[in-house]
Amino acid sequence: MTQRLIHDNGDELILDPHFIWVDENTWSAHVQSMDYALDGTLIVENSIKKAGMPMTLSLEENQGLADRALVEKLKAFQDKYPNDIFTLERFGKRYRVTWRAEEGEPAIEAHQAFFNYANPDDNDYVSLTVRFMEIPNNGH
Q1: Which letter does DSSP use for residue 40 in this model?
Q2: Which of 38, 45, 93, 100 would you label with 81, given CA atoms 20 to 30 Å apart?
Q3: Measured distance CA(104)–CA(95) in Å, rounded
Q4: How far apart are CA 133 and CA 122, in angstroms?
């Protein structure tokens, strides 16, 4: 089965089928804030997040690697659609996502696998991380 990124205009990018969703089970929609009032009373507020689930897809040396050509295609897709919402199709499931770059981490991060070359080519392998966040449908 494939994994692909689909823009609303039909433009799509086929992703490596070996991408692993590394933070699939670490996010919780439940959020809690605790504080103390001036008199020492504990104040606890609970809520449910409405959006923003991270979806970090990764290809590492022990999971399978990507070639540099895929990195260049992803970067071109991001440059073409920097603020857009896409459909991420993974193994028959569909998610509405956008790029996620936070805390100094880029949305697309690649590192040369095995050896660093002064002049790498498109067939050289890289470890690759792509960061998205899920966006609610809002009736669209």
Answers
A1: S
A2: 93
A3: 24
A4: 28
The pTM is what? Answer: 0.82
**Maximum separation of any 2 CA atoms in the chain, in Å:** 65
CA distance 117 to 99: 28
**68 CB neighbour count, 10 Å cutoff:** 17
* Residue 79 DSSP class: H
SS3 state at 76: helix
Cα dihedral across residues 117, 58, 89, 7: positive or negative: negative
| Rounded Cα–Cα distance for residues 56 and 100 (Å) | 9
* 96, amino acid identity: R
What six digits make up the tokens of 89? 């199709």
Residue 138 structure tokens: 């809002």
CA distance linking residue 132 with residue 23, whole number of Å: 11
Question: Residue 71, CB half-sphere, CA atoms under 13 Å: how many?
Answer: 22
